[in-house]
Here is the input.
Amino acid sequence: MSNHSSGQRRGRWAFIGIVAVFVIPLCVAALFVLGPFKWQPEDTVNEGELVSPIVELGSFKPTDSNARPLQLNTVPGDWFLVVLHDGTCSSACGRLVEDASQIRVAIGRDRDRVNVATLGSDDLTLIAETPHWILSDPIRFLNALNASTHSNVILPTLLTLDHRLRVALIYGPNHEAQAALNDLKRLLKASAPP
Here is the structure.
């Protein structure tokens, strides 16, 4: 009889050991993820305003400065910094174009994966090296952006677009260039080719 009860005790201890090794860590992890503990740092989220649902620039039929449909040779992992303006490039618009160019340089070795452009309703030459894209209906595009963000878009503004010309993030004229740089570094790292 003592052999039977010692076997039950060993079985019970084995079961308790299995529970201790597998179940307790899951409970502790659940407390940190779902429970009252806020272990995730707040600064890991994007600094720009996320555009959701997606707004695709291509559906608004942009053209290049020669009035030809926009044709870009992009691959997955390429990103665009685009300054959206209202047709007159004020000092704030010029500052955003300069900020976008400096962000591209600050990216370092991945700068070939980042392109800078301007986007507006007419052919406006800002900087010789900066391509300008033209929208035939900028109001409709701006309305789509406003519908996909929590605030009204104030022009000029800086947009981050992916290789398919989908708007990912928006930075208003009062955002710091460092915010866009931080987000773009994360996007480049997350979309790095294998």
User: Anything to note?
Assistant: Residues 6 and 107 are 67 Å apart (CA to CA). The chain is about 35% helix and 20% strand.
